[in-house]
Amino acid sequence: MKQVKYRNSASRLLLLGTVFLFSLLNPVFAQDETASAAVTESAAGGDIAKGEALFKSLCASCHKRYKRTTGPALFGVTERRSKKWLYSWIKNSTEMIASGDADAVAIYEEYNKTAMNTFPQLSNQDIDDILAYAMVIKEKRPKPPVIEGEVGGSGSAVSTNLILAALALVFLMLVGVLFLVNKTLKNFAEANNIELQGREERTSIWKAFVQNQFLVLVVSILLLLASGYYVYGYCMQIGLDEGYQPIQPIHYSHKIHAGDNKIECKYCHSSARVSKTSGIPSLNVCMNCHKSISEVADATATADYSKEFYDGEIKKLYKAVGWDEATQSYTGKTEPVKWVRIHNLPDFAYFNHSQHVSVAGIECQKCHGPVEEMEIMYQHAPLTMGWCINCHRETNVKVEGNEYYEKIHKELSKKYGVDKLTAAQMGGLECGKCHY
Amino acid sequence: MKNSINIIVVAITIISVVSCKKDSKPNYQYMPDMYESVGYEPYGEYGVFPGSQEAMLPAEGSIPRGWMPYDYKNSNEGYQQAKDSLKNPIRYTKANEEAGKALYDIYCAICHGGQGDGKGTLVKREKILGVPSYDDPGRIITEGSIYHVMYYGINTMGSYAVQTNEEERWQIVQYVQKLKADLEGKTVRIDSDVVEAIKIEEAHHEAKEEDHSNAHH
Prior knowledge:
The structure holds 2 protein chains of 2 kinds.
Chain A lengths: L8 H36 L3 H12 L17 H4 L2 H9 L1 H7 L2 H9 L13 H11 L9 H48 L13 H7 L1 H25 L16 H7 L4 H4 L14 H8 L16 H15 L1 E2 L4 E2 L22 H7 L5 H4 L16 H10 L11 H11 L7 H5 L2 H4 L2
Antiparallel strand pairs in A: 1-2
Chain B lengths: L1 H18 L12 H4 L40 H10 L8 H14 L1 H4 L8 H4 L18 H10 L13 H19 L9 H23 L1
Helix pairs in contact in B: 3-7, 4-8, 7-8
């Protein structure tokens, strides 16, 4: 299917059209299928839809259907065990192990003595429903919508590039043609003995310019001013890294984590609450979620980054932290992930995260920009002294719930004749606050 | 001919100047020795460290300031002991509850949900499934078991001991118990009366000492 994007547009359009049609039709088919499956299954003693809801709310934290996680994969479980055994196991596995049931003890040992929770609230019918859901044969994911996204997405990227290349080619050809035309015309002229007008007849514009001293003076002054302007501009941006966007060893998308999934910044950067540095999360923090999320959902893939790409990045995490997916355990073989630092203050300036995050209660986005929209992290603020000072002049100090400083806040407010103190009035402009 | 050569030279200079601006490389600095710290910076890369990484695990046996040993083992028995006998040493004040809420919303709510009903954002988006509600009858949680699970993690849930300190974890325990009480429709425990609070604290202290001796047996 991938070659499609290079074929001519007519067949591509046709194909896109059919794919689109199929994608429209597909959910309808799928619904019919599950509905009919549910009907047949409920005759056998389990409602798949109810089972799915129960499975997702109770079982899915430790079990997947086709993959081992904390507990075994559940597909095929009714072939491995009898229904009666499953009823009593699911309702109270601890009791069964204690009573010495051979199968129960064996599986308890096999899974590192991880005790399964008891589910006294489930009826036999509920368990039947769950088992019916667990026994649904894995269907191949319907590919059409994904391919449509891929063709459409990368197609548009490719087409802009193609258009640019074509334009460049046309331009080059035009230049060539003009040269050729010029040459043939000259040849014609020579052949017909027509004398071309020489250029030497009029004084060249350059000579005229050099002769006019006033013009030379004005132009050189202008040139000097312009170059001074640019040199000044260049010198002023040395040491500034606004927009710095290095390539990281693992493509970690803040957009997916903080934007789409709304994970708090401080979940991963937990030391921003209590310490000078915001903290780069150690990999065990990643594994809090990625122990169970080993691949991204189809919907996570975008035109620029495919599902395979994101899954590969999660594999990089597993390799670094030494997580063996097959046995669901740590191998102990770890390697550091060498993240590239983006935000960097010079050594002579002191900045403390906890003071700004916990004491002042400033949003992370105030300095770091719209991180939740950044697929690749970059530096949003210039991090210059002027930028710091400006914020200190404009920001009011959060005085609520800070009884210790109540008196000094009151006195300072009286001194400056204001209701609300800014950070600058609290001494936020003193040199020694940040430079020492 | 001369003209075209001039044009080409100018074009190449302009292109090379413009293309020098690259966002994947850091900019030049005036005095790098004033920018870069002489001491080792957090997360820096220095040859003296294993793997060249400044970020390392603390030396074995080192104890962070304010850290207290936790006597319960990371096993089913340890869990049961903590569930039965471990008690929350902090006073159940409104301030502690609010602190607990702030921390809960950062670390727990993403899966367990703002109400503790197991319906956090990640569950709603079907990224992580099977998160139980705090009033789940199959797993009755107590202050001890809540703390124990936060300390070590359980099954798919990881340990939160790195992201929180002891006091913060107990504040979260208080808030989780509040959510549980709300879900079950019971009254939320608040130690408002100072005299009563002291009594409870003493009782806690005794209970804790008992716990410790229990744990040792």
